[in-house]
Each structure stands twice: as C-alpha cells, then as structure tokens.
Amino acid sequence: MSRLALALLLAAAPSLAAAPTSPAPAGGIDAPRGGPLSGAELDARTNEIGGLLRCPVCQGLSVADSPSSMARNMKAEVRDKLAAGYDREQILTYFERSYGEFVRLDPPMRGVNWLVWFGPVAVLVAGGGVVAWAIKRSARNSGAAQATDPGSVPSDLPSRDTLPADARLAEAVRRTRELAYDWPGGVPPKPRPLPS
Amino acid sequence: MIPMLGRALVLLALLAASGGALVGFATGARPTALGWLWARRLAYAFAAFMALANLLMEYALLSHDFSVSYVAHVGSRSVPTWVSMVSLWSSLEGSILFWGLVMGVYVAVATRQNRDKHPEYMPYAVGVWLACGAFFSFLLAGPAQPFATVPGPPLDGPGPNALLQNHFLMVIHPPFLYSGYVGMTIPFGLACAALLVGRLGHDFIRPLRNFLLLPWIFLTVAIVLGGWWAYEVLGWGGYWAWDPVENASFLPWLTATAALHSALLVERKGVLKAWTVTLVIGTYLLTILGTFMTRSGVFNSVHSFTQSAIGPTILVFLAAALIFAVVLLTLRVNALAPEGRLETGPSRDVVFLVQNLLFVLFTFTVLLGTVFPLVVEAARGVQMSVGRPYFDRMSVPIGVCLLFVMGVGPALPWGRATGRQLRSALLPPLFTAAALAVLGFVLGVRNPWTLLALFFGGFTAQVTVSELLLPVRQRMRSHGESFLEAFGQARQRGQRRFGAYIVHAGALLAIVAIAVSSTMGTSKEIQLRQGESTTLGAYSLTFVNAERVSEPHRESVLARMDVSKNGRPIGSLYPRMNQYESQREPIGTPAVRTSLTEDLYLSIHNIDPGNRTVGLLVLVNPMVGWIWIATAIMALGGLLALMPAWRGARVPVTERARVATASPEGSS
Amino acid sequence: MATAPLPDAPARASRVNPWVLGAGLAVVVPLLAVLVLNLGRDPHSIRSPLVGRAAPAFSLAPVGGGAPVSLASLRGRPVVINFWATWCVPCFEEHAALTASARTFGDVQFLGVVYEDDEARTKAFLADRGSSYPALLDPDGRTAIAYGVFGVPETFFIDGAGRIAEKFVGPLNRATIASLIAKAKGGGP
Lengths: 196, 668, 189
Prior knowledge:
The complex is a heterotrimer.
Chain A: H1 2-17, H2 39-50, H3 69-84, H4 88-99, H5 114-140, H6 167-181
Helix pairs in contact in A: 1-5, 2-3
Chain B: H1 2-29, H2 33-62, H3 69-74, H4 81-86, H5 92-113, H6 122-141, H7 169-181, H8 185-197, H9 202-234, H10 244-269, H11 273-295, H12 310-332, H13 348-380, H14 388-411, H15 419-426, H16 429-442, H17 448-479, H18 483-493, H19 495-519, E1 522-529, E2 533-536, E3 539-551, E4 554-565, E5 568-573, E6 576-580, E7 587-589, E8 591-594, E9 598-608, E10 613-622, H20 624-647, H21 653-662
Antiparallel strand pairs in B: 1-10, 2-3, 3-4, 4-5, 4-6, 6-7, 8-9, 9-10
Chain C: H1 18-37, E1 59-60, E2 69-70, E3 79-84, H2 89-104, E4 109-114, H3 119-129, E5 135-137, H4 142-146, E6 154-158, E7 164-169, H5 174-186
Parallel strand pairs in C: 3-4, 4-5
Antiparallel strand pairs in C: 1-2, 3-6, 6-7
C-alpha cells in the first residue's frame, strides 16, 4: 500500500509544480525580462495571461473572457507589455500593484496560500492511507458468518434481518438463531410493531 | 388580505413542522401507534400549508398584488406572464418559499410511501425532516418574510433581474435544482434515523438508496442546465466558471454520487455502512452550506444577494446541524458494524474505495478553493481570488482518474481477481482506448490531458458496453434467445444494473466532451463594418445589418450574421444586445449554432447601428452539444435504475439465485 | 431505553468513537470559524494596495486639446485626481463639490480623469456645468488601470511627495474633500 501512496504523490506532483511562486510586489516592474513577441504567439500568450487576471468589474470572469470595456483595456495592456518583452510574472505583478492580490485568479504561493495547493495533496495521501487501513481492518475482521468467496454470494445478501438465499444454509442459520438467540423463524422479532 | 393569509399559512407550517418534529422524535424513542399517526399527519399538514402558501404567492404575482412585499420586490406589470410566474423562485424570499414547497412534497411522498414499513426508523426520519422544515418555516416567518405587508403599495414594480428574463431555461433550472438540492433532506433523515436507532438493516438501505437516487437525477440535470444557461445567456463562451454558487450545487452532487456507490457495497456485502451514512449526512450539510454561500452575501459571486439577516440565521442552523451530525456520528457510528468484509488485492471492492476517495478529494478541493479567499482574509487580511485556473488545474487530473476508475471497476470481478482474470478483463478494452486516442491525435488533439481522457474514455466505453451486454450474452447462450429477446429480458430482470451502466455511459461521454470542448476550441475577436466578412475555421461570417427590436421590457439591437461553412451558406445567426429599463449596462445574448460536432458561438461586445459597426467574439467549440446529450443519457439511466423500486418488481429469491449462479462474474 | 442493542449486536469497546469525533471537529471548527469571521464582510469592496505608495505616473491631454498634463510636473503640491464619467449619476452630485473645493484650495491641484467616455459628451457636460480644473482624457483606460480603478467615481488624494495618501470610492462632499486634503498635507498614511 505504500506503493499506492507513492503513486498518489507522484500523480499530485504536476499540480504542485504548476503553482506560481512569487513574493508580494514591492517596487516597479523594471526592464522587460523576456524577448518581444508578435503574431500568433502574441495572441496566444495574451489569451493565456488574460485568463490569469480577474476582471475587476465583473463577477469572477477573467480578463480574457469578459466583454466589458475595462477588461478589453486590460487585455490591450497585457498585449502591449508582451510585445515589449515583459514576462508573465512581471505583467501579473504590474496589475497586482494596482488592484491587489485580488486580481490574480491563480493564487500565488505566499503566506498561507500554500494551504490551497498542498491541502488536496495532503487529503489524497491521508485518504489513501485510510483506504489501505480500511481494507486491512476488514480483512482482519471476519464479520458475520458469511461465505468466504463473495463472488458466488447471491445478491440478496443475508443479514440480521433476513435469511440467506441458499436453502440449506438458510436452514442451518435459522436453527442456530432459534437456539442461540431465541428468535422465532431465525429472524429478529419485529421491533415495536406499529399498525398504520 | 393576501399578506395576512400568507403569513398565517407560513406560521401554520412552522407549527406543524415543529410539532411534528417533536412528535416524531418522541415516537422514535417511545413508539406508539398514535404517535406515528400524528407524526404522519403533521408531516402532511406541513406539506399542505407550504403548498397553499406557494399557490397564494403565485396568485399574488400573477394578479400583480403589490401590497405583498415580495411582489413589490420582483413583480412588474410590463413583463410577460411566464416571467411573472417564474418570479416565484427568482429572488431571495420567494426562492425560500419555493424551497418549502419542494420540501413539503418530498416529505409527504416519503412519509406516505413508508407509512407501514420500517417502523423503528420512520418516526425518527419524519422527526428529522420536520425539524429541517421547521427551520425553513422559521426563515419564512422571520428574517425572509415574503408576505410582509407593504403599507403604501406601489402601482408597479421593478421586475425580476434582467438576466433572468433572457432565456426560458430560467423556467426549468431552479425547479430542477431545488428538486435535487432539497430532496437531499430525505436521505439525510433516513440516515439520521439509522444512527438514532443504532443499526442499518439490509431492508433499510433500499429506501435510503432510492431517495438518494431521485434527487441525484434532478441535481445532475440541474447542474448541467445551469452550465447550459451560462453558455447560452452570459456570452463569454464557456459553461462553467467555478463560481462559488456553481460550486455550491456541485459539492453535494459529488458526495451523493460517492454515497450511491458505497451504498451498493452496503447492499452487497454489508460493509461501509457508517461511511455511507456519513456521506449522506455530508451531502445534506453541503446543501445547507451551499445555501449559505448563495444567500449570505459573504461570497463574491454572480448570484450573490446583498447581506441581510438571513445569512447569520442560516449559519446558526448550519452550525447546529454540523454539531448534531458530529455528535450523532461519534456516539452511534460504532453501532453500524460491518457484516461482511472487503476484498483485499485487486478486485472491484478496492476500486470502489479508490473511487470514493477520488470523489471525496474532489469535494475537498472544490470546497477548499471556494472558501479559501475567506480563510486568507481572516488570516492575512488580504483579499485574494481563487479562480478558474486553480480549479481547472485541480479538477482535470481528478476527472481523468475518475474516468479511468469508471473503466477499471466494472471490468474487475467482485472477488479477488486472479492474474488471468485481470488480464482478460483489462487488456481487451485497451484496443478501443488506443483507437480513440489515435483518432483524437489524428484530428489535432495535442493536449496530453485530453489525449489521456480520450484513451481512458475509450477504455471505459468498451468496458461499459461489455458489462451492459454481459447478461444479454449469457441469456443468449443459456436460454437460446435472440439478441432482442435477451436484451429485453435482461433489462427487465436487472433494470437497476442496466440503468447504472447507462449512467456510466453518459458520464464518460460528458467527461470526454468536456475535455475536448475546453481544449480544442478556437476563438477570434473582431470589429466588422456592415458588409464585411471574417472567417474562423471552416466558417465564414458576414455582418449584414443591425436592426432594432422593441419589447415592453427591453430594447434590443440584433446583428444579422450570415454564416457559411466550407463555402456553403447555412443560414443566419442573430446575436443581440439588450437594453433593459432597469439596468445601465446593456446585456448581450449570444447566438449559438449547435451541431453534433461543434458549436458556432457569436457574442456581441459592442454594436453601433449608426456607424454600422459591430464588435464580435466568434468561437468554435467542438463537442459541446454532446455534454447536454450525455446529461440526458445520465438522467435516463438514473430513472431506469430507480424504476424497479416503484414498480415493486421483485424477482423471487430462488429465481435470483439461479440467475446469479449462472453469471459468476457478478451481475449487480 | 430506545437504543438498547439487539441481542446479537457485536461487542463494542466503547460507545464513543474518538476518531470520528476528532475528524468531525477538525472539519467543523475551522469551517465555522472561517464563516463566522467573514460575516459582515462585503466581498465587492476591494481595498486599494496603492495607498501609501508612489502614485503611478501619467501624461494625459486635456479635453479640448492643449499641452499634456503630467503628474511629475506637479511634484511639490498636493494633487487630487478624480476619475469620473458623464454617464455616472453620483459624479453629477460631486461635481459641484469638487469644482468649489478646487477654487477654495488654491495650493492643491485638482485633476479630473475621464473614464470610458467620449470627448464630445464630456465637452458638452463641462460647458454646461462649468469647471475649475482640467479634465484629462484617458484613451484606452491605461491610467485608470494603473490606478486600480474599479468604477466611478473614485478619487485619489496625493501628497506633495507624490505618494497616495488616500483613495476614496464614491461621491464626495466638501467636508470629506477638506478632511482628506488635510490628511494629504499632513503627510504619511
């Protein structure tokens, strides 16, 4: 089961690797760090970064999706900055200086934000452990006197309230219960019958 | 007169519910026939008073009685009649009144159906239902009064929110949503009853499962209707934005789906009783949390209402319900001991557990992301957002894993699988898996997650079809029936299993369609002058003209766009920009042309009829139509799975044993 | 007792399950705490991060033409920048207050920046209502974005050193203008 845990952890790794890391913006965004873009790549990157910025006057829409004029102005600003060669983090920082961390749709890794990135991974690993423990515990706990090969048990599983479907087994269980628990017919007496 | 009558009805509902809850709990603790009779009567009374109150409100809305506060709030003489009817659930207090109606109907039906069954559980269940009903009646009597009297009634009202008048989907989305959401109260009551009694008998898992499945069907349809509404009305070209209120409807769906699956294990093996009960209780608590998220004004959302006294009141109820649940589980969970054992090693059991884990993980992640801005504000004092990029990134791997598990699980046998069984179960579907992935690659799919989704989708599709037809093949072999005969017989005898696999088929189609439509779309933003054309993909669009249309409640400008595909003209689309009297900003309505392969989506950003220019967003979204079709398939499958319970079709025990022994790989 | 165990109920070590209690509290307590702490919060009012920081530079042409006005050239005096538009009803209300205050506070430079509006309408509005300070045009809304403007009216009070002393959202009256100017002159947050 430790392999299961390892597999889960590896599966979670790509999500973690994609978490943006950046400290809170302090000064200006200085000189462009990347190279200038143009053409189809400029369009694609504008859309990509537009998708990471929240339109301030809309309800939860990104700048890329929002039709409002403020969003379109912001998108044009993103485009200009990309064409000038600024990189993604610089552009996001620029808008964050004006609007606050609120404008970033993807929570950057700072302060208590790590919780939103690691929380799901922790639950995955912990959950995997619980599943493993449940299976092991169930294997130890033999439960009621049931068949050891569940594949051939009929779907009407016998329980405290009914008798097994198999006729010979039902007879045996019925006699046992009558003798041991004093249950007439092998089923528990109707608890507190209520006439409707 | 109407306000007074309405308030009286609400008060009576409150009395019936409170009294009924007390009687229910007392009868559960000390059972008597009279107690049970009165618990039932008070349940029916609660339902009747709520129904009457709703009818009265509809009458007030349709007759434009502005002395009723809710009508003064959302009524209007200048809106079409259907909008007036629909206004019942369009706004805060009215929607709570509607909640009461749906709850009343559910409680009445559930009580009547079980009036002479499960005697030790039912009084407790009715008690819990009516306690919840009492809370909502209290809301209607106090903080969220729809029937308050307006001292100087105005001559006309503002009408409901303009966005809600844009599309007929507004008529059916809330009723479906409430039928799903509120319906979760019933299994909650049954689960609490099981805990209060101290056992979950084999006979009781069936009503629990059925009353979980029915709201589940409604909720599934409602969630997708919401997405469809966002797609057709909001104009940004997508159908899901992980808005807090969208998430509020999605969270209980996730836990309910997990509960439906673990209930199967309870029925088959008598294991996971406590876990299933926990999931069902969690589902209900999530609906209350969801209603708090929607109505408290604390969350930043499209649906947000302004802050009022309702928020804190719901929070108090949520806190009480959470504490009640934790205490009840702590004291009683040990009583729900398992009667069987789970299989270790590769088997369907283990896959079920993994699937449950994935659903719980999904629930946790969406909940965490939705609540996180509040956490950060409390901890760091900073306002931040958790938006689509985060949720998409988290949900894609989980969704793909669920798709995988949905294929592996049914392929494996119930018992511990031998190596040979594993190979014969898991290798053949790889053909369809690879075929679909290759097909996708050839058609231009390059996104690795989408390719993986196609791969697993193909795998799951083959497994699902194979499992669906398994009893048919067996019948053809053992009884010599023709395919159609065998199909009909197998469906009739194992309708639940049949329905379940149809739901799986719909679910896998939905996941694949979502994967393809979110990664393979193309878009273009362009300004066009009259007569100018533009192209996107195989489509060519010409802006012909702009025309004005006047309606009583809005002025619209329509842009006529002539569309041709691959050179052949295929008609015209009319995206529009609507100016409502009550709004400063105009609201656009996109025009969507749906075909089996893709949608052509046009949304106006700005339009100037004088200058004859239009600013347009053009999208080509592949496979979006399949999402709606897949949801219909899921609903149909759910109904099929539910129907044997209502028809009371019970195959005799001996017959079932014979069928079961004839299919060792495990029928349902 | 209502919940007496049936005869063959499995033996239980205790009636209380500590794991469930622990897990339950671990979920319930933080969730309720977060929700309670956030009651009363208005998610739509976003605090500006620019208060206390250097005001973003700009150089904008006034309505009706003329030499561009740059923020840098005004260093040394307090500046009041009011973002407004002709379609904004609260802006009408505060226009009179701002015009009068601009005349009163001669040492403070008042500037209006027009937000998402067109020049002709703005000129007509100012001709109709008069003005005592320049109205600047902001093509493409770049300056509004730099100042983190969500809507109109929003007003920034900048001190002599070029730092934003305060941001006020909503229509102003003369008393508020006076007190915020005093704050900007006093220096510091």
